[in-house]
Amino acid sequence: xxxxxxxxxxxxxxxxxxxxxxxxxxxxPVLIKLDGDQLQGEFVTINPFYHIPVVVDDGFRVVESLAIxxxxxxxxxxxxxxxxxxxxLATVRMVQLVTxxxxxxxxxxxxxxxxxxxxxxxxxxxxxKVLQFFTQVLGDRSFFGSEQLTLADIVAGIGILSxxxxxxxxxxxxxxxxxxxxxxxxxxxxxxxxSSEEFEVFKERVRALVRLRRKKADQxx
Length: 221
Ligand SMILES: N[C@@H](CCC(=O)N[C@@H](CS)C(=O)NCC(=O)O)C(=O)O
What we know:
By secondary structure, the protein is of the alpha+beta class.
C-alpha cells in the first residue's frame, strides 16, 4: 500500500493528504514529528532534503507536494482534478504557483514578524493583492477553473483558509468566502482541518524554523 510520510500541521503535507482523501486512495500514514526525526534514520534516505510530504508507492518514491499530487492524479484519474483543457490547466497551475510564490512567503512573514511592524503591513498588502487576483480568477465558477474541485483548490484552499487565524478576514472577498465555505463542507476538509490550538502550534514551529534559518544565514555571511 502507498506510504504517506506526513505531519497534520504541515500545509504541504495536508495538500497531499486532501488529494488522497478526495480521491479515496487507500494509504498507510507515517507520522513524521518534525522534532528532528526528519534529519535522521530511515527518513534521510527517503528524502535527503529532510522535508515532508513524501509518498512511496510500490517502491517508487516521490518528494515535492505538487509532483506528488500530479502522480496521484495520473495514477488515480477519477475523480479528475487536473483538467487537460488548455485554459483550465493553465488556471490550475497558475493558482498553485501563485499560492507557493506569492501567498505562502507572506503568510510566513505574518507569522514571524511582530503585528504592528512595517514588514507585517507589507505582507498584509501583498496578501490582499493575491486575494483580489484570486477573486478575478475564480470568477463565477464554483472552483478554480471548473465546477468540480481541482488541485488548485486544494493548494490555494489550505493557504486561504488559514488567513482568518492571522487576522485577515475574507468578508471583503465574498466570492472567496463562499468558495472557502464550499470547501469546508467537504468531509475531507473537515477531517484535515486544524483547530485554532493546532494552528498556534504550527505558528510556533514556523517561528522556530525561521529563527534557525536566519541564524544559519548570518553564520554564512
Ligand atoms: N517544496 C516542498 C516543501 C516541503 C516543506 O517545506 N515541508 C516542510 C513542512 S510544511 C518540512 O518538511 N519542514 C521540515 C524541515 O524543513 O526541516 C513541497 O512542496 O513538498
